[in-house]
Amino acid sequence: MASMDVPAGQVITQPQRAPRAAPKLNAISWLALALMTTSSVASLRAAPTMAVYGLAAVFLYLVPAIVFLLPTAMVSAELASGWSGGVYRWVAEGLSKPLGFLAVWCQFAMTIFYYPSLLAYVASTFAYVINPSLANSGVYTAVIIISLYWLGVWVSSRGTKTVAGLSSTGLVIGTLIPGLLLVVLGFVFLGQGNPSAAPMNSSHILPPWTGLASLVLIVNNFLSYSGMEMNAVHVSSLRKPAKEFPRAMFLAVGLVLLIFILPALAISWVVPSSSLSLTAGVMQAFDAFFAYFNVTWLTPVLGIMLIAASLGGMLTWLAGPSKGLLTVAREEGYLPPYLQKLNKHGVQQNILVAQGVVTTGIALLYAFIPDVSSAYWILSVITTQVYLIVYLLMFVAAMRLRRIAPAHPRGFRAPALHVLCVVGWLASAAALVIGFVPPSQYGSGSVWSYLLIVGGGLVVVGLLVPFAFYRFRKPGWKQPDTEWKAGVGTTTEGEATA
User: CA–CA separation, 359 vs 126, rounded Å?
Assistant: First the structure.
């Protein structure tokens, strides 16, 4: 027996097993993350804008996808598989902590004006279902925006897993299914011998070149793909981040392209560009198809489904950037302790509430200012400009990290990283510059006043506000810990009661 060979007095010990890793709280699958990312980027709302150009919509979507979407997805996949914490961690490690804070602030600040715009679309779509005349009511629009935003805050406060499930469900019900139905109806419509409203021959593959206006059109589509990197802050919620995050990114890229291109073509087949509404074009197309197939009762059903997709996208944006801002707040003390507190589900609820106060104020403009569209459009341009700062910093940080930390473990290495970063940086810079070109919607206003408003907004929102946080931070505001980032534990005893 083995025990006879043991010297006297020696204690036999059993080999110890390695401790099992604690399960992650709010763990999500890579498929759920892919759907969350797709939900935050893709939407049928943009389809009518490109449907106006018929077959050329394919070109107008593919070019930005090649020079912006692909570099963003590939670079963020490498960064997220090597450095957790999202865009703050990437820029902080690659450049500096202050620039990392600037990046995450710009990502967060952009969303403040995104929610009223998105929820105003939801309000108009819902009005189309119950009473179209309500779409012109500012009070109705304000009430819907405020109610749905605070409902979204409550849902987001339940945790990442809840948000992932609801946003993924919203994407499937309100984007994938309606988009697929739109495309199928379009093919059946053409297959029955009906002519396409837009020419579908080779001479219409490229849009007509009209100088700077054409360049603006192409570059503006870069912004349709913004947000691919946003859900990287959830990489720590994956069970195998190094392998699963790149997989989620690539699936999201494919879904985004399909959702953007095919429905736009289907709309162009049935609705002439001269009568196409850029806001209600999707419902126009469904109306036309359902009237042709004698199933007009489905129109309200599709309206509700489109609303579900928009609400799912809102939940994704609520969960992502605010969590990235929380990273900086706790580690570097950029925000007061009150804004750093987590609820019992490990969610940055107080940041969401503070953001909601500003969102509510913007929403009230719809009720008290008769014509807020032009002013609000300017605010949207400003926040878009602010968001582009994130990409300019991210691409530079990625190149520097590859140079200064080549041996750092990465679950995924983007091929030709420097080429991708240069192309993506130039595309972002072009979009930033084009943003200062007054569009046709600006009317006959002074070009210099436009430049002053947009440039001033960019400086104030994108530079002065984060500088103020950085300048007045206090050492006592730091609350560094590692458990909440790893998903092992997310609250302290005091925070659980917040």
Answer: 20
**CA–CA dist 114, 258 (Å, integer):** 23
Instruction: Look at residues 352, 366, 284 and name the one whose alpha carbon lies nearest to residue 120.
Output: 366
Is 11 a residue whose pLDDT tops 60? no
Q: Tell me what the mean pLDDT of segment 153-158 comes to.
A: 76
The DSSP code sequence of 387-426 is: HHHHHHHHHHHHHHHHHH-TTS--S---TTHHHHHHHHHH
| pLDDT of 484 higher than 50 | no
Asked whether residue 10 carries a pLDDT value surpassing 50, the answer given is no
Q: pLDDT of 298-335, one tens digit each?
A: 888 888 888 877 777 777 777 667 777 877 777 778 87
Distance CA 30, CA 245 (A): 6
CA distance 171 to 408: 35
Tokens of 279: 């806001």
* Residue ranges of domains in the chain: 26-474
pLDDT for 419: 95
- pLDDT bin (cut points 50, 70, 90) of residue 185 is very high
Residue 44 corresponds to which tokens in the numbers above?
A: 């049928």
Which residue in the block uniquely carries the two structure tokens 């939801």? 122
- How many whole angstroms separate alpha carbon 253 and alpha carbon 245? 12
Choose among 66, 94, 64, 67: nearest CA to 79: 94
Residue 208 carries which side chain, given as an amino acid letter? P
Radius of gyration (Cα) for the chain, nearest Å?
25
CA–CA distance, 245 with 259 (Å, rounded to integer)? 21
Q: Between 362 and 144, name the one with better pLDDT.
A: 144
In a 3-state reduction of DSSP, which class is residue 198?
coil
Contact assessment for residue 453 and residue 376, using Cβ atoms and an 8 Å cutoff: no
What predicted TM-score, i.e. pTM, was given to this entire model?
A: 0.73
Cβ atoms of 326 and 338 within 8 Å: the answer is no
Topology classification of domain 26-474: Amino acid/polyamine transporter I (1.20.1740)
Neighbour tally for 10: CB within 10 Å: 7
| Contact predicate 129/304, CB 8 Å | yes
- DSSP tally for the chain: helices H, then strands E: 21, 0
Task: Tell me the pLDDT tens digit for each residue of 67-81.
Answer: 888 898 889 888 888
Q: Which amino acid is at 142?
A: A
pLDDT value at position 405?
Answer: 92
